[in-house]
Model the fold of this input.
Amino acid sequence: MEKLLETLCNLLDDEIERQGNVLAVCNAQREAVFVRDIDAISARTEALSALIRESIQAQTKRHETLKPIVEHFGLPPQEQTMTHLVAATPEPWKTRLRDIQLRMQQTVEETRRAVRANAKVMRRSKRINDSLIDALRSEHQTSRTGYNRNGSDYAARTEQPVLVDHRG
Done:
């Protein structure tokens, strides 16, 4: 049992580190949005995807390690939570698992705040970009180019834009 608990603690420590990396990437992604760096936003999004894939793979290993532990302590399915596991384990595992639980909760809460902030910044950026595009379209449709057939007045431009760059 000692070896399984040690393995579980190590796996959970790895997950806390991974979640810390998620937080750092989320913060970097927000900075990339602020400076409108499309390449950096894309790179940060790819990094987040990779971290999520790693986390899902690691979750499988944690569950494999956790199954014999919860069976050993006789935890029914509805009590197979970190809080119940902490309560069921003896010292020094109780203290170590409680510390891991607190660190995980703090990291997840910070990440949640970062994700919310990112969503707010991205929605605002999208609204600004959409309004700029609408303004450009409106200006383009009402702009005049040259004289009319009689040469006495400006002719209205009727062509639609043929190219929009990758930034919108």
Notes: Helices lie at 2-34, 38-72, 82-88, 93-142.
